[in-house]
Design goal:
9 strands, binds zinc ion, globular, single chain, seven-stranded mixed beta sheet, alpha/beta, TIM Barrel, 338 residues, disordered N terminus, 12 helices, 40% helix
């Protein structure tokens, strides 16, 4: 279980399956571990040719294990079970080796991306998502999605959110993948649609892709029906293009009114995350006077690049991660908390 405790933050779904699997018996655990599920693709064991189901490679509890009769003599359980237990120990050892290897790759990645320190790993996400209410000073009401700038948590985690979708820099995805840093995109169709493939790829690699309206209009200037069209139509666009219907919505410019929240709720939106800080390649705009991150802070930045910033998206991430790590925080996945 100690090894399972080391499972990376992005492996939490697998971890939950592993823990559940313990109740079902070693074979289930072994199946999950041997499949390499949850490990980065490059660490997963290759499936033998023509075999897609990892469980097909497992020693079957019913079938005699190789060398069964010799192994089984004098033991409290039979040869197949013992072989299975040995297989489980081997698989756990292999899994630990893979984790160590993944960590070594992350250390190397931090160095190659010019980070002074390796980003901290996020802790295990909460078993149950915290109950949410709107931040003080924000609109609230029955049936309206809560408006947040910070997720309620005691953990030293912050959340990276990237808006609009104009710049589609493959280096950004490579950097965040290599460092194993999660993020959530809030996409506006008007700029994202030039290449939804980029965001599909990010989503496949674990990023959340959420709603930032169709045309990036200032919603408070629009009628309820117009606002609803801006939000609901982007729900449809993202479901079609990304393959998953968003549950989070961020209004452009953070500008919203009661109609916005009513419209968002009617489109299936559950939470409206705004932000506490904004990250740029050369600075962080702090939401509070203490110029410090607070547990659960949502950080905003944008898919932008050289044209607007005279710097790249990896430059922005490098600057941000330096501060996040210096202040003892890890970047967690927003969708694990809200
Ligand atoms: Zn925006």
């Amino acid at each position: 279980m100690e090894i399972i405790g080391q499972v990376r933050q992005n492996d939490q779904r697998v971890k939950r399956r592993l823990l559940r699997g313990a109740a079902l018996g070693g074979a289930t655990i072994l199946a999950l571990i041997c499949s390499g599920a949850g490990l980065p693709a490059f660490l997963r064991p290759a499936a033998p040719e023509g075999e897609s189901d990892a469980s097909a490679r497992l020693p079957s509890a019913a079938a005699p294990a190789p060398g069964g009769p010799e192994l089984g003599g004098g033991l409290p359980f039979g040869a197949p079970q013992r072989a299975q237990a040995l297989g489980l120990a081997d698989a756990l050892a292999g899994y630990a080796r893979n984790l160590k290897h993944a960590e070594a790759l992350r250390v190397a990645a931090a160095k190659s991306w010019g980070l002074p320190r390796v980003p901290l790993r996020a802790p295990t996400p909460p078993r149950r998502k915290p109950g949410l209410v709107s931040e003080p000073g924000h609109l609230t009401g029955k049936g309206l999605p809560p408006v947040l700038v910070q997720v309620p948590t005691e953990e030293k985690v912050v959340f990276l959110t990237i808006d609009d979708g104009a710049e589609k820099d493959p280096e950004l995805l490579r950097m965040l993948r290599e460092l194993d840093v999660p993020f959530t995109g809030f996409l506006s169709d008007e700029v994202a649609r030039a290449d939804y493939g980029y965001f599909r790829k990010a989503h496949r690699e674990g990023a959340g892709m959420q709603n930032h309206t169709v045309n990036h209009r200032e919603l408070t200037a629009l009628s309820y029906a117009e606002q609803r069209a801006e939000i609901c139509r982007q729900q449809d666009n993202l479901e079609r293009e990304i393959g998953e219907r968003p549950t989070l919505f961020r209004p452009p410019y953070g500008a919203y009114n009661r109609d916005t929240l009513r419209a968002a709720a009617s489109c299936g939106i559950e939470v409206v995350p705004l932000w506490a800080e904004e990250a740029f390649p050369d600075r962080i705009d702090w939401g509070r006077g203490d110029r410090r991150l607070h547990p659960g802070d949502i950080i905003l930045t944008h898919f932008r690049g050289e044209a607007e910033w005279q710097a790249s998206m990896p430059d922005m991430v490098r600057r941000l991660l330096r501060t996040v790590t210096e202040q003892g925080f890890a970047v967690a996945r927003l969708e694990d908390y809200v």
